[in-house]
Specification:
The protein is mainly beta. It folds into 4 domains: 6-104, Phage tail proteins - horseshoe like beta roll fold (Roll); 108-202, Phage tail protein beta-alpha-beta fold, CATH 3.55.50; 210-228 and 304-367, Baseplate protein-like domain - beta roll fold (Phage tail proteins - horseshoe like beta roll fold, Roll); 236-300. It is 15% helix and 42% strand. The chain has 5 helices and 22 strands. It has helices at residues 48-57, 121-134, 166-175, 263-267, 285-300, and strands spanning 6-12, 18-23, 25-32, 38-45, 63-69, 72-86, 92-100, 114-120, 142-143, 153-158, 181-188, 195-202, 210-217, 221-225, 236-243, 254-256, 260-261, 274-278, 307-311, 325-330, 339-351, 360-367. The strands form 4 sheets. Strands 1, 2, 3, 4, 5, 6, 7, 13, 14, 19, 20, 21 and 22 form a 13-stranded mixed beta sheet that branches. Strands 15, 16, 17 and 18 form a 4-stranded mixed beta sheet that branches. Strand 3 (25-32) and strand 4 (38-45) form a beta hairpin. Helix 2 (121-134) runs antiparallel to helix 3. The protein is globular. The mean pLDDT is 94.
């Protein structure tokens, strides 16, 4: 089976004007819900003309990179680093590493105090995106559905003195009790063919429907990893916030949440397992308490994230599967009676075909 060719489209980050389209090899990419995706690709430099094109089109931190597999957009983001390599035969290549669109928000800070009262948390996120875009040079074309609401109002104040990074603020908002999931997806508009950087929101999680894909092991699932991890468990929790000291001459002490204890686990015979978390910009006791409750709930029964490695020449998968539900069937010595369950896809990593090894996708799953 022929593997569809990869190519990169280099564009101006702010206008999306195409600068060049280049063939690439050794492409690897990943995308996640709740974590920034990344991509790497090598641009071969067989002659001076191609090298000049790449030097002209690629301006790290200013250029956008879209990765196409065949006719479809599979990934989009911003190249932040590159490495020029030469092998023992003198062949040149430029290895480009990029972060997903959300990595741009790591480079944007809240420099003007933002305040909201009883505002839907999705509107808060969109407001932060709008704030980022409203400043000179800050609009990279992130689009969103302005009508989508979560039904959860929030009170928030983000102080310019804290200079918080916008992605960190959104992540904290998402992780609080009653929170949500978010990502910035890359796709082509079906009607116009236009490339889109689309903000995707879901409360409590992002769901994109139930797929008809069945993944069998043995079968298209070449291998799997099923982590069993108690190192992140806790049944007692306390969160620490910002300093509540307004007198510089006095000792500075942070705001502390109530100490939360799950008496049921302790009564059932579990040993006491303490957990803590820091939210250094949170000044509201209610917000800090909501963070602590969410953190304890996650630590009481940590969700395993199984990983399946799937041969792409045996089943059609793409990053559009993120948020969808797949059916997993495994029969082996561990699952002697057979596993047959549905899982939500929360991450996907593509590895290229090399030296006879097929192109594979690693799926990261959680219980549906």
């Amino acid at each position: 089976m022929n593997v569809p060719a990869y190519r990169v489209i280099l564009c101006d980050l702010r206008t999306d004007q195409v600068l060049d389209i280049l063939p690439v090899n050794d492409v690897s990419l990943d995308d996640y819900i709740g974590k920034i995706g990344s991509a790497a690709a090598t641009v071969p430099l067989p002659n001076a003309r191609i090298a000049a094109r790449v030097r002209s089109a690629l301006d790290l931190g200013r250029t956008a990179m879209w990765i196409e597999r065949g006719p479809d957009i599979w990934w989009g983001g911003i190249p932040w680093t590159a490495n020029l390599t030469s092998n023992d035969r003198g062949a040149l290549g430029l290895r480009v590493q990029a972060g997903g669109w959300a990595s741009y928000l790591d480079h944007r800070a809240i420099l003007h105090t933002q305040q909201a009262t009883a505002v839907d948390q999705f509107d808060l996120v969109r407001g932060l995106i709008d704030y980022s875009a409203s400043l000179a040079g800050g609009d990279i074309g992130i689009e969103y559905d302005a009508e989508q609401l979560s039904g959860v109002p929030r009170d928030r104040t983000y102080r310019r003195y804290d200079q918080p990074r916008i992605r960190e603020v959104i992540d904290q908002l998402a992780s609080v009790e009653g929170g949500f999931e978010w990502r910035i997806a890359s796709y082509r508009d079906t009607s116009s063919g236009r490339r889109v950087k689309g903000l995707q929101l879901g409360a409590p999680v992002i769901r994109t429907g139930e797929s008809e894909i069945v993944l069998d092991h043995p079968g298209p699932v070449l291998s799997y990893d099923w982590p069993i991890d108690a190192t992140v468990r806790a049944n007692v929790w306390q969160s620490r916030g910002a300093s509540d000291n307004k007198n510089q001459a006095a000792e500075s002490l942070p705001l502390m949440s109530e100490l939360l204890v799950d008496d049921e686990q302790l009564a059932a015979g579990w040993p006491r397992l303490d957990g803590t978390s820091d939210y250094t910009t949170v000044t509201d006791p209610g917000t800090l308490a909501a963070h602590a409750r969410a953190d304890l709930a996650a630590a009481l029964t940590p969700r395993p994230i199984p990983e399946l490695t799937v041969a792409l020449d045996r089943v059609a998968l793409s990053p559009a599967l993120l948020g969808a539900t797949v059916r997993v069937r495994i029969r082996d010595l561990w699952w002697a009676e057979g596993l047959d369950e549905r899982y939500r896809v929360v991450g996907l990593a593509i590895s290229p075909s090399l030296r006879g090894r097929p192109e594979t996708a690693k799926l990261y799953l959680e219980a549906a």
